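new request in #modeling-help
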Amino acid sequence: MIVNKAIYREGRREDIDGDISDAVDAARDQGRCFVWIGMHEPTAEEFALVSDELMLHPLAVEDAVHAHQRPKLERYDDTLFVVLKTLEYRDATSDIEVGEIMLFVGADFVVSVRHGTANPLAPVRRRLDSDGELMGFGPTSVLYAVLDEVVDHYGQVAHEVEVDIIELERGVFAPEGPDVIADIYSLKREVLEFRSAEDPLIPVLQEIVRGKFPECRGTLEYFRDVLDHLLRVDQQVDAHNELLTSVLSAHLALLGKQQNEDMRKISSWAAIIAVPTAIAGIYGMNFDHMPELKWRIGYPLVICVMVSACILVYRRLRKSGWL
Amino acid sequence: MIVNKAIYREGRREDIDGDISDAVDAARDQGRCFVWIGMHEPTAEEFALVSDELMLHPLAVEDAVHAHQRPKLERYDDTLFVVLKTLEYRDATSDIEVGEIMLFVGADFVVSVRHGTANPLAPVRRRLDSDGELMGFGPTSVLYAVLDEVVDHYGQVAHEVEVDIIELERGVFAPEGPDVIADIYSLKREVLEFRSAEDPLIPVLQEIVRGKFPECRGTLEYFRDVLDHLLRVDQQVDAHNELLTSVLSAHLALLGKQQNEDMRKISSWAAIIAVPTAIAGIYGMNFDHMPELKWRIGYPLVICVMVSACILVYRRLRKSGWL
Amino acid sequence: MIVNKAIYREGRREDIDGDISDAVDAARDQGRCFVWIGMHEPTAEEFALVSDELMLHPLAVEDAVHAHQRPKLERYDDTLFVVLKTLEYRDATSDIEVGEIMLFVGADFVVSVRHGTANPLAPVRRRLDSDGELMGFGPTSVLYAVLDEVVDHYGQVAHEVEVDIIELERGVFAPEGPDVIADIYSLKREVLEFRSAEDPLIPVLQEIVRGKFPECRGTLEYFRDVLDHLLRVDQQVDAHNELLTSVLSAHLALLGKQQNEDMRKISSWAAIIAVPTAIAGIYGMNFDHMPELKWRIGYPLVICVMVSACILVYRRLRKSGWL
Amino acid sequence: MIVNKAIYREGRREDIDGDISDAVDAARDQGRCFVWIGMHEPTAEEFALVSDELMLHPLAVEDAVHAHQRPKLERYDDTLFVVLKTLEYRDATSDIEVGEIMLFVGADFVVSVRHGTANPLAPVRRRLDSDGELMGFGPTSVLYAVLDEVVDHYGQVAHEVEVDIIELERGVFAPEGPDVIADIYSLKREVLEFRSAEDPLIPVLQEIVRGKFPECRGTLEYFRDVLDHLLRVDQQVDAHNELLTSVLSAHLALLGKQQNEDMRKISSWAAIIAVPTAIAGIYGMNFDHMPELKWRIGYPLVICVMVSACILVYRRLRKSGWL
Amino acid sequence: MIVNKAIYREGRREDIDGDISDAVDAARDQGRCFVWIGMHEPTAEEFALVSDELMLHPLAVEDAVHAHQRPKLERYDDTLFVVLKTLEYRDATSDIEVGEIMLFVGADFVVSVRHGTANPLAPVRRRLDSDGELMGFGPTSVLYAVLDEVVDHYGQVAHEVEVDIIELERGVFAPEGPDVIADIYSLKREVLEFRSAEDPLIPVLQEIVRGKFPECRGTLEYFRDVLDHLLRVDQQVDAHNELLTSVLSAHLALLGKQQNEDMRKISSWAAIIAVPTAIAGIYGMNFDHMPELKWRIGYPLVICVMVSACILVYRRLRKSGWL
């Protein structure tokens, strides 16, 4: 579905009402202006209308329609083809939802294809509308603005993950905290997915910054800024991954410690109750000649002994830290 | 065994009835056409017929007959020799079966040698038959089509592994789930085997994409596309490997937690039953002077005390989460 | 907030009273002198006054105001922009506090921006005041002196971490030591944060030492010295990280060993007390014909048997190391 | 000890009876032929006879006599000095025995020095005797043939290790299998030793294949073939290493699971026997007024209650999977 | 403290009695001879005497006085500055003591500075005295000889560590072996320290061998030999590190196994003693009508039943491997 079509003329945007091909032709004739066509999960047929007009490469077209690509930047003749993963943090479930954005960046056009619910293009459009200078760099400015927006959002998601980890830590180190093993594991999974979204983007941006793509050379400093933010996110994601492994190890150690303490507590109580039971057993024997049984104070005495023994054992265990 | 021999003339296929050498000579004379000979687990003798005719290098011939090679691409004079691992997922056993395909790609011939049951060449032939343009690139198009098919199939196998992992996760985190340790381990083994099949292919494709092999230069974009899919598979396999390690750790932690809970439950019941036993022991003593024993309500009273004590202990343990 | 403004003229410092722009113009005219403006957590407005005057790049300005950047060195036209993390060890909590310093280093000015409480710039100023020769290298000498001070401080923090680890080790290997799992984990977290502060600085210094920045070429040996200290810190941090993983593993193993020993001790005492209980049970049976019950020495005999049995069991368990 | 001396003239071998120096001089004069001297653990004196004659470099000579070198290839003037580790799998103990072969390869001589019991040179000699064409490449052909033989043998040892791992897996996953922890560890040790033998050989062969040594350029394809087999072995060794870590983790998890099941089983039986004990305790009390004690059917009734209670508890535990 | 000063003239050594500066001037005039000044933990003042005379770079001087540097090789004008870590194995405590040696290598002088107790320079001097040829390479020969001695000693320390590991393995796998967890951990620490001493030396030697320092070019083969030994040590240290991790894992698994076996043994004995206790409890009940109590053979019969039951249970448990 085409969700957006506009022509950007000297930094100002005008919606295209009529045919795309007319607009593109017009853009080509005038120079210094370009067309941006935005699509959302287009079918092969819908996309064919656009790709035929702009003569996009069939391999790139196939990728754009089917999605599930790896983040990458490829040149097909005069067109750059970029694939990005968008991440969206869902508060309710602590899940990270992965979407995709593909961009075809030509000399006088940009085609954007979105898959999934995330829509980072709206803020991009607002920014471009308000920043005429940036817009002056032509289609490359769209590429920059989308990358900047997507990577900035990575930073926010990384922050949410950080918050989740701190939550987990609190659970792990609280006495009788909630059961967090499944949460640790599922966050680990999210972090791995996060990494598979952002990691392949690093070499892409490094190539741009090294000046491999002539169309980006005028805005190198901007792309370097994005790369820098991406590297920061990447470092955070690696640290999160390592932290989650550590937190699970710490949890394992705490469980072991807990179990040992429980065992000691249980055994202590068992020891305390075993003493009167053993004494009672002795005076429950049926020997004819057990003088204590005849004593008047025999019974209260033995009760006293039992209680004293219990208290004694209790105190010793308390002192040795078992209770 | 020769399972297939055909001559591809200007994108159209014709079966070869007669002698191979005649067909190859004919192909050489006409130009723009090539011969494809397909073999399945040939004996040294069967293969000698073909290799002598096409003057294949003895080291490559030995590799092709004995199989169990590492994925690689090597040049011997004018011939490229490619070894690929094919993977086949067996639903019944969740096993991954490994086969091998070797390709000799010369200027006017292709020799393919299959080992194992997997047969990715059938769909390759269908695709080539229907795509005359691709066929126009000559023998290189066969190389591309086989690589594309094999790597695509890697993607499907990776998906099956993903499904298996999700199944395992469900087992691990379900209360009283099935015993999954052996399954985790055997999947880990499969993943390592998977990696040893796909990982060495990456530098091979990178060399092609960097333009090291002149015969592939016309179709670089196609090979780049295959490389891209392969990198995606590689990333998935790495993630699977890491996930399986994590899932085993999580399982270990859950076992520890489970054991601790079981121990607490067991100890709780032991404590509950220890109370009446101790009381009964006391009133089983044979002292002459135990006034309670004479009381009429002694017996019902002590039963009441026992029951109350049990309930009391039960409630406390319930509250502290041990029961 | 501007906390410091001075002009360094031939190695001597003079405070600037008047307008910054006048001072910068004066510095430009005279040559061989430069202005240093120091700021602490400036607002965007405060910073605009300086950045407009010195024509700093807007991307760098944004980074300087918002902080939370990755350590880096970037060139914007004639200005170097450096971001450093400062670390401060808090004795009370064993926490490492992270701050940030940004430097804009131009031909005739230095702008420093501090975020956080750490203030390494005071000793830097003292050192520069007393070392005229170093000062002769111009603004680059400030860059060197700040890097040297910050990296030296890393070394001190690494030493504090080392001390903390030794403390932890003592806790882990002491019998009945304190609970250190949470401490190990939180130190691990600190170490990861440490690494994310110092690690990205290594390539920055390597680029300087390789001579990528012409303005630093006169002082290469000084920067090489800083790099060397940084590499030493980096190695220490890596070793700390690995040690903390090992110490947790060792703790886990010790817990397992402890638990086993506790279980043996508990079971031993249970065995010792089970013997008299069983004997008492036997003589508590109500058979009419149990000759021992009639014996005069029956009762003292059975008590002797009980005690002897207890001693016997105790000795055997002692010998086998269970008690 | 000199165990072998021969002159290879145009692919045919002749034993040398007389003096080595005469033979070497003869070889030098005739061209296209070379001398091969084979030694086994020579003393410094024995070796001096040869090394003085051929003017071998003293550092290489020292290495050759003392053994315990790292696999390497070094050039000393016109002589290549190669160190290889030989591996021998001992079936009886599942041990891998490490030996060493050093080769001095000059323009018209080869000196081989063996340490340890492994003797891969015998098959090498047979192969060279029967393959005149290979022999035509001169001393380099000996280098190739030895490398090929040694690396091929690595492959066989890797296969034996694979078999041992499968054996271990069977032990780990069999219920009540043998104790395999020590075996896993000692195999891990063997694998590490294996890796330290084969891993340093990879860069050696890569240098040869990249054409760094002019004397090997005529046989590059042969060395590439050896490198290929070596890379395959290397990959297998890495996989074995990873598998052994996994198998130990799996074993640990299984032990935990086993322990939990045992604990449940033990507790279940304790619970079953605790019920009649408690009931018996109650009716062992000495209250005067316990009406049930007077009933004729009291005793059989209470026995029935006991048995029923046991059966009830047994069934419940069975159902919940504890028994 | 200056512990040694000598002039080496054409490979022969003469002690310097008088002033250092005279000796250095003499060496400069004569050519082909050089001065070696050896110091041990000099104070800044002591060192200033030497460094002023030879015009050593202040940064290097600071490093030499304060020690605790990273192993490195740096050029300051015409002087090479080398920092090495010396390792000393203490048999009594199995500790590795770390010292430091710094060398200033100029065209006609060598200054060596030792920190710590290790003294590898004495054997170096003996070797140089006896090897006039080596000495002919001038100050570089001292650099080589010190590196060779230090790295050789690394090899001996690595061997001691190997011996310690084998000792630990014996402890781990012996039934009821000593407690080795603290030993494993402390050896791990030693190995990490070892690595931080030898690992940074590798790139230093690789740079020398690649010919980066013209003064070492005449003796490249000697330095290559040292590098080779260093790589061997590095590989051993890595293997030791990995082995220690494995041995701790194996120990953990053995502890788990041991605990399970202990638990089974304990439970078995508890089961055996529970049977007579339960039977005794039944015949301790006070029912009026318990016919067995009246039987003459009641008591011996029930004792027989108890003993038989115990034997029966014992046998079953024995058979199932629990006892």
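bot summary: The radius of gyration of chain A is 35 Å.
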